[in-house]
Amino acid sequence: MLARRTALVLAPILLAPALLAQLGPPPEPVGNPITVSKAQLGKALFFEEQLSSTRTVACGTCHDPLAGGADSRWSAATSAVHPGPDAVFGTSDDAIGSPSQPRTLPNRRYRYHQSFGLAPQVTTRQTNAAFAAAYAPSLFWDGRAGDQLVDPLNGQVVLASGAALEVQSLEPLLSPTEMGHQARDWNDVVQSLQAAPPLALATNLGALGTWINGRDYPALFSEAFGTPEITPVRIAMALATYQRTLVPNQTPIEPLLAGLPHTLTAQELQGGTLFRSVQFTGCVECHTLPLYGDDLFHYTGVRPADEDPGRFAVTGNPADMGAMRTPSLRNVEYSAPYFKDGRFATLEEVVEFYDRGGDFDAPNKDPRIRPLNLTPTQKAALVAYLKRPLSDERVAAGVAPFDRPTLFGGSPRVPQHYGAGSDGSGGFVPRMIAVEPPHVGGGKLTLGIDGATPGTGALLLVGPAADLAGTPFQGANLHLALGPGIVRVNAPLIGQGLGGGWASVRIDPPALVGASLFAQWLVFDQVGPDRFAATDAVELVGF
Ligand code: HEC
Ligand code: HEC
User: Which listed ligand is nearest to 320 at the C-alpha?
Assistant: First the structure.
C-alpha cells in the first residue's frame, strides 16, 4: 500500500499518466518478505482441509480461485442461506453465505445450532473475493482485521504494519463457525498439522505435489522458515505470502491502462467511459483504478444501515453505520453473488441497483449513490465493461498462480447418501449428517442425526454388510439390522419436542482403501412404521 501511495504522490512529475494505473505487485510487510518456499507452504495450508476440526473445510473451500477467490459452490439454484439478524429464514434480512462445518465440540462430536441443526453452518456474510485482499490495509467487509500482527501466543508485536492478511488468516482457524470447534486453541491447530500428511485429502496437486514431494509439515516449515516449528505466526505468514502471489493483473484492461494497443470492443469502451464518468455514474470514485476498489468504507443503501452495522462495529462512529469496504471489481464476473449479503445474482441486477440510487436511505448514505437514469444501452455497456475487460483469464482457466487441487469437499469421496428415511412422530423424517472424510488411517469421523423425536434414543447401524446397502431399512426389514457384522451404537437423543432430537457418535473409518461401510440411524418411535423412524443411509468408501 505504502509503495502505491508514494507512487501516486510522485506520479504527476515522474510518470506518464497512462502508467499511473498499472496494478503492480502487492506490498509485503517488513518482516515477512515473499519467498517461493513460503508461498508454496502457504498454498498447501490454504487448501488443507485437515486444518479444520472436522477435516472438511479449508480456506480454499470458501475462497476458490475459479470464482476469483469467492465461493464457487454457490449457484443461483442452490444457495446457502444465513437467516440474518432476526434468525428467521425467508425474511428480507437473510444473507447468502458460505457453508462451513457442523457446530463441533472439543471432543469432535456435534452440537445443535438453532438455525442449522447439525448440518454445516453458514457464514453471516458473503465470502469476499480474496484475490485483491493483498492490497488492502484492512480486511473483511467491515475492515476489522487491522494491519499489525500480534503473536497470539505471547502478545508480542511481530509485524508492525502492512500485515492485514496475516491478521485476517488467524480468525477462521479458531472460529467455530468456520474451521474450528468450540474453545479451539492454537495447540490444537498446530497438532492438526504435526501428524497430517500434507493435502492427504485432496487430489490433483500438480506442481504443489511436486514441491511437497512426500514430506511432512515440519519439513515444509523447515524449508520455508529454517526450522521445523509450526506456530500460529508462521501459519499466518505463509498463508499471507501465498495470497500475495495472487496478482490479478493479466486482464484486457491492462494494455488500455498502459496506453498500449488493446482488444476492448466499442461497447466495452463505452462502458469504461461511463464507469469513469463522475457525471454519469461516479463508479470510479469508489472503485478507483487500478485496483477498482478504494479500500474505504461507504454506506451505499444495499440494506437498512442499522441491519448490519458494518464499519460502525469497528469505529463506533455513527457516520460508519452500515458502511462496507469497497470490494475490488477485478474478476467480479466470476464472484457472484454480489454485495456483502449476496443479494444479487448478476451484474445486470447490480447495475440496476445503482441506476435506481440504491434501495435504502440513511443520513450517512454516500451522495454518489443516487438515481442515474441510464439508458438500456448504457447499462448494457457498463455490464460489458465489468465482465471481460476486468477478468484475468488465468483465473477462469485455473492456471498458475490461480490453480488449485481438487478438495475432498465436493468430490465423490464425500459420504454418499442413498435411500429415503421414514417418518416418526409429527411426520418428521430424521436426517443423517455425514460430512467427514472416510480417510483410512486418518482417525475417527463423526456421524450425526437431527430432526428426530427424542424418546428412548437413537441407534446407529454401521456395517460392511451388503445388507445395509441397496434399500435402507424401512419398517418390515428391521431384522436386517440384526445381521452379522453390523455394529449397533446407542446414542441418547438430546433436545426437545417433535423433530427436535439430535445425537452424534464417533466411528472408525473403513479399514482399507476402497472398502465400504454403510450406515443408517434408527430412532425408536411409537408412531413410525414398526415403531421406529429411520434416516436415509450413507456409504463411506475408504480412501
Ligand atoms: C466457511 C467459509 C470460509 C472459510 C473456511 C474461510 N473464509 Fe475467508 N472469508 C469468508 C467470509 C464469509 C469472509 C467475509 C467475512 C466478513 O467480512 O465478515 C471472508 C473474508 C476473508 C478475507 C478478507 C478479504 C477482503 O477483501 O476483506 C480473506 C483475506 C480471507 N477470508 C482469507 C481466508 C483464509 C486465509 C482462510 C483460511 C485460514 C479463510 N479465509 C477461510 C469465508 C471463509
Ligand atoms: C460510494 C462508493 C461507491 C460507488 C460510487 C460505487 N460503488 Fe460499487 N460498491 C461500493 C461498496 C461499498 C460495495 C459493497 C457494498 C456492500 O456489499 O454492502 C460495492 C459493491 C459493488 C459491486 C459488487 C462487488 C462484489 O464483489 O460483491 C459491484 C459489481 C459494484 N459495486 C459496481 C459498481 C458500479 C458499476 C458503480 C457505478 C454505477 C459503483 N459500483 C459505484 C462502493 C461504491
Answer: 2
**60 CB less than 6 Å from ligand 1?**
no
Q: Pick the ligand that lies closest to the CA of residue 124.
A: 1
Domains of the chain: 36-244 (1.10.760.10), 252-391 (1.10.760.10), 416-541 (2.60.40)
Sign of the alpha-carbon dihedral angle for 254, 257, 258, 264: positive
Q: What is the pLDDT of residue 14?
A: 34
Residue-level pLDDT at 329:
97
In this structure, the dihedral spanned by the alpha carbons of residues 434, 439, 445 and 450, taken in order and rounded to 10 degrees, is 0
Between CA 22 and CA 382, with CA 12 as vertex, the angle to 5 degrees is 45
Residue 533 confidence (pLDDT) above 80:
yes
CB of 300 sitting under 6 A from ligand 2: yes
pLDDT beyond 80 at 152: yes
Which residue, among 412, 313, 299, has the nearest Cα to 361 in the 3D structure?
A: 299
Residue 24's DSSP bridge partners are: none
For residue 446 and ligand 1, the question of a CB distance below 6 A is answered with: no
Please give the pLDDT value at position 423: 85
Give the pLDDT confidence of 468-485 residue by residue, as tens digits. Answer: 544 555 543 444 555 667
Ligand 2 touching residue 339 (CB < 6 A): yes
138 in ligand 1 pocket by Cβ < 6 Å? no
Ligand 1 atom closest to the CA of 178, numbered from 1: 1
pTM of the model: 0.94
